[in-house]
Amino acid sequence: MKYVFLITAILFTYSQKLNAKNTPYSLDRSDSTLQADFVQEKITDNLYVLKSPNYNTNAGVFIGTEAVLLIDPMTGPNNHQNLLNAVKRLSRKPIKYVINTHSHPDHSGANSFFAEQGAKIISHENFKYTNAQYDQTFKDTFSLNMGNETVELHHIAAHTFDDALVYFKNSNAVFMGDTYMTNSFPHFYYGGGGKGHLEIIDKTLSLGNAHLTIIPAHGKLSSNKTELNTYKANSIKWINRIEQLYNGGKTTEEIANDQQIKQLSTVFNNGNNVGSQSIIRTIDKTIAADLIPSVQLPESRFKQFEGTYRYSNGQVDEIIYENGKLLFRSKGLYIFEIIPLSETKFQVRGQFPVKHLTFNTATSSFEYFNGKESLRATKQ
Ligand SMILES: [Zn+2]
């Protein structure tokens, strides 16, 4: 789930102020009412899931031989100190590491708070194209020795371009981040599309044994392979049915009124009826991620657009061709895949309302329509 950058900026400032008032690892015992807002599940003697009172994000706490590892410290007013208090009730060992399943603020918002307490933030390398804080990055896989546990990270672009599965080998448990939520629609529009979504699910199903504990980012505190298999089957039905109806010429509204789509919407949302606007928005994004009619261009054509481009306000964007994808990215801001609608016009994948880039090769520039206005950038 994604929240506006402004909120992160405010919370970042807030966390710094909050931290200034507290010595590292101080326990504010007067705060018992707020602490009680965390819901907790014990997975093993060393692994716990805590649910935040604000964004309902599932955070993880692993107690290693020497130190504690946190997964997805969420943000939210008053939450950072409360999360610290909740962790310290489980273990007094130092919090040495924070790992994020992805960059969205409801998963990484307390990074700066825990970094200031001495934790090292480990994240996927594409965090550099977000405004989330990080210390150490990895590309495809990463392994961390916690003494009593080996923690493996696996990157597959699915929900975002910076997703990581966090797998606890000995504990037979894995955190999937927003690539698995038991109370909302699948959310794969901005990263790997439907293909990446199914790929990360399959990777998860290949880990551990039949009793693997699977921690979704939102919804239930823990799940299992049987439920994830059902989620996978429903995701495939969702993608295929929308494709079938869209290719048959149906409008988004008509697709939203389809019986199978309505039924799947209820299943994804934990049995709750969801408003038609929410269904329509999700269908639009599904179409924008995977079904826009695109043209085939040779690799040599994609490479012609590579380079750094500067806007009149000084902001610099980069166009790069990587692993068969043309990426449009800016340090500290965003990373998107762009797909060709013609020789020169590209759509930003998964974005609805639509955003697009139109290249002018004669002037080595492009116009970026960001959904509100067109901005011109020239190659450096
Ligand atoms: Zn997210």
Question: Could you walk me through the main structural features you see in this protein, from its secondary elements to its overall organization?
Answer:
This protein has 380 residues and is an alpha+beta fold. The protein is 30% helix and 28% strand. The protein has 3 domains: 3-223, Ribonuclease Z/Hydroxyacylglutathione hydrolase-like (Metallo-beta-lactamase, Chain A), CATH 3.60.15; 236-290, no CATH class; 299-379, Lipocalin (Beta Barrel), CATH 2.40.128. The protein has helices spanning 5-21, 32-35, 79-90, 105-108, 111-116, 193-205, 225-247, 252-256, 259-268, 276-290, 299-304, and strands at residues 39-42, 47-51, 58-63, 68-71, 95-99, 120-124, 136-138, 141-145, 150-154, 165-168, 173-181, 213-218, 307-311, 316-322, 325-330, 334-340, 345-348, 356-360, 365-369, 374-379. Strands 13-14-15-16-17-18-19-20 form an 8-stranded antiparallel barrel. A hairpin with a 4-residue loop joins strand 1 (39-42) and strand 2. It is globular and about 60 Å long. The structure holds zinc ion. Zinc ion is lined by residues 1-2, 102, 104, 159, 178.
Tell me the layout of helices and strands.
Blueprint: H1 5-21, H2 32-35, E1 39-42, E2 47-51, E3 58-63, E4 68-71, H3 79-90, E5 95-99, H4 105-108, H5 111-116, E6 120-124, E7 136-138, E8 141-145, E9 150-154, E10 165-168, E11 173-181, H6 193-205, E12 213-218, H7 225-247, H8 252-256, H9 259-268, H10 276-290, H11 299-304, E13 307-311, E14 316-322, E15 325-330, E16 334-340, E17 345-348, E18 356-360, E19 365-369, E20 374-379
Parallel strand pairs: 4-5, 5-6, 6-7, 11-12
Antiparallel strand pairs: 1-2, 2-3, 3-4, 8-9, 9-10, 10-11, 13-14, 13-20, 14-15, 15-16, 16-17, 17-18, 18-19, 19-20
Zinc ion (ZN) binds next to loops.
